[in-house]
Amino acid sequence: MFRTHTNGELTLQNLDETVTLSGWVQTIRDKGFMIWVDLRDRYGITQLVFDEDRSSKELLEQAKKLGREFVIQVTGKVIERTSKNPKIPTGEIEILVERLNLLNASELPPFTIEDETDGGEELRMKYRYLDIRRNPVKDKLVFRHKMAQKVRNYLSDKGFIEVETPVLIKSTPEGARDFVVPSRMNPGQFYALPQSPQTFKQLLMVGGMDRYFQIVKCFRDEDLRADRQPEFTQIDCEMAFVEQEDVLEIFEGMTASLLKEISGKDFGKFPRMTFNEAMKKYGNDKPDIRFGMEFVELNGLVKGKDFKIFDDAELVVGINVEGCAEYTRKQIDALIDWVKRPQIGASGMVWIKYQHDGVVTSSVNKFYSEEDLRIVAETFSAKPGDLMFIMSGDANKVRTQLSALRMELGNQLGLRKGDEFAPLWVVDFPLLEWDEETGRYHAMHHPFTSPKPEDITLLDTEPGKARANAYDLVLNGNEIGGGSVRIFNKDLQSKMFGLLGFTKEEAEAQFGFLMNAFKYGAPPHAGLAFGFDRLVAILDGNEVIRDYIAFPKNNSGRDVMIDAPSPIANAQLDELYLKVETKE
Amino acid sequence: MFRTHTNGELTLQNLDETVTLSGWVQTIRDKGFMIWVDLRDRYGITQLVFDEDRSSKELLEQAKKLGREFVIQVTGKVIERTSKNPKIPTGEIEILVERLNLLNASELPPFTIEDETDGGEELRMKYRYLDIRRNPVKDKLVFRHKMAQKVRNYLSDKGFIEVETPVLIKSTPEGARDFVVPSRMNPGQFYALPQSPQTFKQLLMVGGMDRYFQIVKCFRDEDLRADRQPEFTQIDCEMAFVEQEDVLEIFEGMTASLLKEISGKDFGKFPRMTFNEAMKKYGNDKPDIRFGMEFVELNGLVKGKDFKIFDDAELVVGINVEGCAEYTRKQIDALIDWVKRPQIGASGMVWIKYQHDGVVTSSVNKFYSEEDLRIVAETFSAKPGDLMFIMSGDANKVRTQLSALRMELGNQLGLRKGDEFAPLWVVDFPLLEWDEETGRYHAMHHPFTSPKPEDITLLDTEPGKARANAYDLVLNGNEIGGGSVRIFNKDLQSKMFGLLGFTKEEAEAQFGFLMNAFKYGAPPHAGLAFGFDRLVAILDGNEVIRDYIAFPKNNSGRDVMIDAPSPIANAQLDELYLKVETKE
């Protein structure tokens, strides 16, 4: 037996017991006549002691040869420590080693296996298996597991069935971001890896499996933004014989149970906000409502005072930053520079200070009297000591810019606390988006999303105004899940395809397969999917999803640890009837 | 709200309640003045009634227009049935419908949605979403879900962490059966889909994650036998700081908990058998021990009686088939023909009957006296009424042939009962297999499998005799899981690669990556993997794994429902720098 206990469990309760432990050498302190070794495993650290008086000379010699990350097994007696370490559960005891068995030596690791390591990200990714030994990485993987278990048990208890849908599916003509997989048995033919199990889950609904879920890998071959992965994990769900309300209730319950597990708090009913309200109040369809700074629109108030920038703007809108009136000119300029960066793209920003002494001043004193400014400040519900920022321009653009500033200030002011949670449903999304470039409508969610019943007539008159039975679950400023009530009526579905500019043939080629299934008694159904990597990160008070993936890929889609992707042998290509033609 | 109850839950307890139900029309019986409709959903069937006296004329008209598989919603009152159906939970009540809402019509389905359907397999696969509506299919998917949940909870409770390993990995030079995936971002380069997460789980052990599991899709692009799938699911497990005994204990416990769930029985300690014993007693390394018919070797007894076939044979071995002495000549000939089929390849078979009247007779009376035969019968422990079959020839071949006969007789005699379970560990597998064709050793399990410590010296002298620390879990004649203690010592691993005929360079190219990880303190570790599709099928008393996969592929690796794989657009190939070159 390699161990009687783990390195996280021995306490004074075990005094005088003879135990066997195994693990990695974390640190060695060699005082010559005494040697202390910290032994580490997944569960914790236990201090080992070897000493001249109580240990054999051979044992001491053996211990002196140990190095960092050596794998050892020791047997010895649990004794009380003279200098205790209250920071760890095993801090009151140590093991007086009687037998030491070197299981495996280790070369010096390329970075220190400590909570704070000296290894840079690239190096740690290359040696990910060593990085996983560190608590901050290991704990994230354990946390992910616990969340997955919790989700599975919650949904199973509610009668959901986890069904595995296929990974080798069909590539569709518009599946431009599909990974494809050549088939040896079917020369010249390809499978595709699923971007989501959307079609299959809808087929399961047609099949009567009325509560489906799956924690499932999905794939997208696209240029990767910093925090995207070519393979990612979804909690994918679908229900039949339900309305939007039923879906929200189930998944609100699921999310609340996760939040309760983490925070101990009951979250009650989650607030809801329409898409329009979210855009108006926060300039964003996934607002972080852990803090205020709601948008205040000022068109009626500030126009007509000869300040041309405001007069010409479609929208003048601002936020009140509480308690920041004492920001220096330098601090304010830094923020103005921040919004002028190309990523944000604002041309500038007006500020108003409501000073502690009651004076209201601004960067546009030339155009506005103190009385004008005071009225504006009142509109913001500002108090003495507050600082207001106002931006102007094209409504959509300025909202996006001000939203970015709001989030930046939230970060700077520490208002976005990792251990605080503010879930929010955003509902009533537009059904369609007009794409200037292609000159046609796109489905905001996907082509199977149902319009709100009361908006169906708008499809004939003003389709752009129709709202969808679509919903997003937002947590701390991140979309963690989204879904919709689906169309299950063939005629309405045909109309949708028409609106989206598909010819009958195109619709048939891309979706005929699902449409065919709809002929045989499709039930009303609705669903949603959570981005599991992101959900886990946010629940753990973090936003970097890569940290929560055991073996992530880098921004070029490469696994630098195993060096994938890589060229394959010509023999293998021949078997697949393929030829690589890279142009130099 | 689409329903207040499901179609499986209403009983006399709900009498007089007004309820709303939704589902599919299973059957319609139209008596003119009265119409009964069976309404079906995932949970059961509820009878609806419309009648001239109690329903409006419009409602009756509406009901008359319904067809099979129409999706409807009804509201009505729970009333007591006059003729009850004790076979279903809702059989004592029916719903007197007050309101009928047609949710979706259905074309006539291509086969009947009944437990016994008129649809052939191909048709049902094409319309799999309709097949899933049938109880026998649906129940299997629900059963699979329950088993997965049980496994996950069992292992989580034991401290195992489910870690998702990547699906896009590296193709290895010998990965001849790898599916490969071209990368758009890395022109001319390919990922491979994992045949198993073997490397990653060993890296997780190096990473200190000492109890790992994953229910995970794996992929193999190979010619498909009847019951193989290009994508299949494993319960993949690995543990560190353990010996073989620890692994067997955990997974015996897991399997016993599944068996208990299904059968209500406690299975205690699973029996164990060495590979050699299994081969000797059953001619098979995965014996079905639900029934006896153990092999009896007869070399010492039957040779030297001038029966040349036995005299020339390396092995003469037989089985005793209890209570079959009254088999007719025709029945016996049919079995002899069966073993002579090319798939089995025996040249013939000797039989001995121990008649009820005490006489012992045989097909080789010319060579053996009744006294000779009686001694043979005694060696078989045969009783009056038993029938013995004896085969002879090359030891390995004859064991395989006799094993096939034993299984066939087990099936014919109803000894292989689906609801009886006989788990068995087979241990002490040979480490290496000699491959006549390539003239070198192959790893019987895989190259990372550890020899038994006491057999390590054999590697230098008689490697073929070395036994491995490898083990299979067998259930009802099927290997449901297998694994091994891994080598974690670099030098021993190098020696293994040498024995397997790898040059240093080849070993480096294929396994260098894991070997590199082994430099940094690899702990002792061991693991195993269950074939989840097969496990579920066998636990459900079935052996056809395809039935337990929601959307399976056929023997050509095709999904006939979605018609995948299929050709892809040239534009897509161009983006991947690929050209298809199929020779006509």
UniProtKB/TrEMBL annotation, chains A, B:
One of its GO terms (molecular function) is nucleic acid binding. Residues 144-552 form the Aminoacyl-transfer RNA synthetases class-II family profile domain. L-aspartate binds at residues 174, 220, 445, 486. GO terms for biological process: aspartyl-tRNA aminoacylation. Pfam families: GAD (PF02938), tRNA-synt_2 (PF00152), tRNA_anti-codon (PF01336). It is found in: Cytoplasm. Gene3D superfamilies: Bira Bifunctional Protein, Domain 2 (3.30.930.10), GAD-like domain (3.30.1360.30), Nucleic acid-binding proteins (2.40.50.140). Belongs to the class-II aminoacyl-tRNA synthetase family. Type 1 subfamily. This is Aspartate--tRNA ligase. It comes from Chryseobacterium taklimakanense. The lineage of its organism: Bacteria, Pseudomonadati, Bacteroidota, Flavobacteriia, Flavobacteriales.
